Amino acid sequence: MRRQTLLFAALPCLFLAVSARAASPVSAGDAPNATPSLLRELDRGADTVPILIGIKDGTPSARALRASPDLEGEPERRIIRVAAQKRLAEELTPQRLAVKHYYESFSMLAGTATREAAIALAGRTDVLWVELDRRAHLLQTTPQNSQILVRSDQTNALGFRGAGQAIAVIDTGVDYMVADLGGAAFPNTKVIGGTDIADNDSDPMDCEGHGSSIAAVAAGPRGVAPDAKIVAIKVFSSKDATNATCQDTASFSDIIAGINYAITNKATFAITAINISLGGTFDDSLDHGYCDGDDPGSTIAIDAATAAGIVVVVASGNDALTNQLAVPSCVSSAVSVGAVYPESRTRVSWSDGAGGVLCTDQPASPDGIVCFSNSTSNLSLLAPGAFWSVVTKGGGQDSFSGTSPATAAVSGAIVLLRQARPDLSPVGLVGVLRSTGKGIADPRNGVVTPRIDTLAAVQLAASGFAVSPTTAVDIPDGSGSATATATVSGFTRPIANVQVWAEINHPAPAQLRVTLIGPDGTSVVLQDQTGQAEHPINALYGDTNATAQSLGAFTGKQANGTWTLKVEDLVVGVTGRIRAFAVTPIPLAERQSITKRTVSSSRVPRHVNPRP
Ligand SMILES: [Ca+2]
Ligand SMILES: [Ca+2]
What we know:
Blueprint: H1 36-43, E1 48-55, H2 62-67, H3 74-96, E2 97-102, E3 108-114, H4 115-121, E4 127-132, H5 145-150, H6 152-157, E5 166-171, E6 191-196, H7 210-219, E7 229-234, H8 252-264, H9 266-269, E8 271-276, H10 296-307, E9 311-315, E10 335-340, E11 348-351, E12 357-361, E13 381-384, E14 388-391, E15 397-400, H11 403-420, H12 426-436, E16 438-441, E17 448-451, H13 454-459, E18 466-467, E19 473-474, E20 482-488, E21 495-505, E22 512-517, E23 523-528, E24 537-541, E25 561-569, E26 577-587, H14 590-597
Parallel strand pairs: 5-7, 5-8, 6-7, 8-9, 9-10, 10-13
Antiparallel strand pairs: 1-3, 1-4, 2-3, 11-12, 14-15, 16-17, 18-26, 19-26, 20-25, 21-24, 21-26, 22-23, 22-25
Helix pairs in contact: 7-11, 8-10
The structure holds calcium ion (2 copies).
C-alpha cells in the first residue's frame, strides 16, 4: 500500500517516499443587454473580452420550440440563424469581433470582441444579451478527505488555485501524457518545463509513478493547487529506454543539480516551491537536530534556493523514527513535512518494504499522526499523508500514502498562499502556514507540530503577522546577545495575546535565554536555559509551546511597532543562529469589545481572526 520500495535505506540511498488597466467604468445604462459578469469584466479594464451574443433573428426561441416542436421547419431555421450571425459579424468586421463559433442550432454567436464592440453590441436592438464566455474548470466530484481536512477545496473556491506559479518536482520524473498532468507531449500546459538529470537527457518522463502522483497531489485537478504548473526534474535513472522502471536510488549530487536547475530557471517558469519527497536516514539511532553539519552539500543548495525566493519542501521520511528526520529534510532551511490521516479507519498497518509490518495504527483518525511519519522537534509542518486518490504513471488512479504526498500537499499550500500574499518571503510563507495551522501533538515524543490549514493561511490579515527579514543571525558564544526584529503595522485593535514563532539552530538549547520585547519595551522571557541537546528550538510560543514567563504582560497593549527577539548564549563552547522569528498578534475578541464598548456590531472593525 505504501510506496515503500523506493523509500528509505541507509544514508547514501534515497527514499521516494489580466492584466488590468485604468478604464472608464461601464454602467448597465451604457450596455443595457450586458450580463452582470460581462459588466464586471469590462469594469476590470479588459481590452478584449470573449463573449457569447444572443441574437434576435426572427426564429422561435429554444423554449418556444421545446413547447411546440417543429422538426420540419428546422433546416430553414438553421439557414436563417447562421445568416443573421454572419450579417452581424460582417458588420462588426474581424477587427472588432473575431468570431470563434457560428451555431446553426442556436440564435447565438461566440467570439472575442474589443471593449468598444462589446459595449456597442450590448446596446443593439437586434441583440438580446451579451455575456462573458467563462472558463470551465474540470468538474470535480466531491473533494477527497485530504482536501477537506486542509480546506484547500474552500481555498480553491475563493479563487486561490495556484495560477501563474510552478512547483519544481525533484523526483522520478512526471508522466506528462496523463490527462491530469497535461495529456500531451513534453512540455505541455501543465508540465511546462524540466529535465532529466539522472539520464542526462531533456525528457523527464516518469520511470516509476511516484513523481506523477506527487505532481497530482500538488497541482492535479484533485490536488491542492489545481492551476499551478509543474517543472519535472528527474533524478532517478531509468533502467531501460522505455522508462518502464527506475533505479532504486538517486544520488544527492543529482538532487542538488535539480535544485540548481530550479534556481537557474526560477524566472522562466515562475517557480515558487521545490518539492523533494526523497531522502535517506542516518545510519544510527542518535538524536539528530538540524543536520546542516552532517550534509553541507544539501544545506548549501537549500540555503541558496531559499535565498533566491524559493521554498524548499522536503519529506521527513517514513521510518517511524521519533528522534530524527531524514536527510535532507533535517537541513535547517528546509521545510520538513510529516504525515497525518485525513480520515478514520479501524486499523491500518504499514509495510516495512521487506515483507514485514513497520507499524500499525488502531484506530486511525483524522489528524492522527501516521505511525511511519518521522518526527523530532525540528519538524516544520504536518499534512495529510495517507489515502490520496490521485493519478499515477500510465493514467490509473492510485491510493498514495507516505510523507511524500504530505510534502506535495504543503508545496501546493505554499503556492496558494503565495497567490494571496505575494509580499511574503519563503520564511514568511512557512511562518504563516505554521502560525495558522492546527497544533497536533505526536503521542510518541510529545512534539506539537502545526497541520496546514490553507483557508486560515490565505485569510490571515497582513497586519496580523510580522516576520523578521533576516534569517541567519549568528548568536555570540558565551556572552552578549543576538537579536532579530519583526515590525507589525496596521493592526488597529488592542491585543489579547501574542503568538511567537522562533526557530533557533543550536545544538544545546539549554545554553540559551530567549526574550521577547514588545514595541513599548515590555519584555517576557520565553525560554530560559531549558531544553534537550540536539533538539533545536522550533517553537510557537503562546500556541504549541509554553513560555518561562506569561505572555499576559502584552494583553491590552498595542501591537504596532517593532518586536524584538533577543537570544543570549550563556555557555562557552558551541553556539548557533536565529533562523526565524515572527509575531502574530491576536486581537481582543469582538464579543469582548462589544461588551466593553457597547457599540453596535456594524461599527466594530472587522478582523480576520488568525486562529478561527
Ligand atoms: Ca529521460
Ligand atoms: Ca554556547
